[in-house]
Amino acid sequence: MLKNEIRQTVLKQLKAQNRERKAEIDKALLEQVLASSEYQEAKTLATYLAFDFEYNTKALITQAQKDGKVVLVPKTHPKSQMTFTEYTPKQLEMTKFGLLEPIKEHPVAKTSIDLIHVPGIAFNSQGYRIGFGAGFYDRYLKDFQGDTISTIYPCQEIDFHADLHDVPVRKVFIYDGQRF
Fold first, then answer.
1. Is residue 129 part of an annotated ligand binding site?
2. Tens digits of per-residue pLDDT, 123-136?
3. Homologous superfamily of 3-174 in CATH?
4. Using CA atoms, how far apart are residues 62 and 34, in angstroms rounded to an integer?
5. Which of 10, 62, 99, 106 falls between 20 and 30 A from 161, CA-CA?
6. How far is CA 157 from CA 5, 68, 77, 174, in A?
7. For residue 21, which of 160, 155, 124 has the smallest C-alpha distance?
8. Is residue 51 a known part of a binding site?
9. pLDDT for 25-35, tens place per residue?
10. Binding residue per annotation — 21?
11. Which tens digit of pLDDT belongs to each residue from 65-123?
């Protein structure tokens, strides 16, 4: 299956999820992230502001702030470029992609980020991902030296071949009712 076909198939499954069950899985995934050494050792966490069908990042952001971590969210630019800037809820605007992102850019140096929580639509067993197709994260992560994690639902685990430019996520948390 081609990446675009996989993307469309998984997006349909994500959007059809039972909301209550999704909330339970989100909570279980959050517990696993919070218990991980990657999270516990990070002082600066970059995450994303999710679509409603994606893993809900609000609880992760809230807990990270309570834990005294600096929380960053992406700011997109032309030519599929992206930076991370400190999360300030009152200083967000809607993008053409339908996501919230910071109004002003105060980019944090890539070397100052300990952990990036990476979004994606589909993931294979090696941690390679299919995103929305613009390449923002692959470009950003190609020389990133810190830890990367993702939180996914069972329907997002799919076998596919990565492209040469794809960058794998180092640790993928998946909930299947029993294991992570």
1. yes
2. 999 999 999 988 89
3. NagB/RpiA/CoA transferase-like (3.40.50.10420)
4. 12
5. 99
6. 14, 32, 29, 8
7. 155
8. no
9. 999 999 999 99
10. no
11. 999 999 999 998 888 889 999 999 889 988 877 888 898 888 999 999 999 999 999 99
Annotated binding-site residue? 6: yes
Residues in the chain: 180
Task: Establish whether 5 is an annotated binding residue.
Answer: yes
For the question of whether the overall pTM of this predicted structure is more than 0.85, the answer is yes
**Per-position DSSP letters for 63-82, written without gaps between them:** HHHHTT-EEEEEEEETTTEE
Was 180 annotated as part of a binding site? no
130 is in an annotated binding site: yes
Annotated binding residue 68: no
The radius of gyration of the chain's CA atoms, rounded to the nearest angstrom, is 15
- Annotation-wise, does 4 bind a ligand? yes
Closest listed residue to residue 49, CA positions, set 101, 127, 2: 101
**Integer CA distances (angstroms), 11 to 19, 22, 85, 152, in order:** 15, 14, 27, 12
Q: What is the DSSP letter of 97?
A: T
Domain ranges of the chain: 3-174
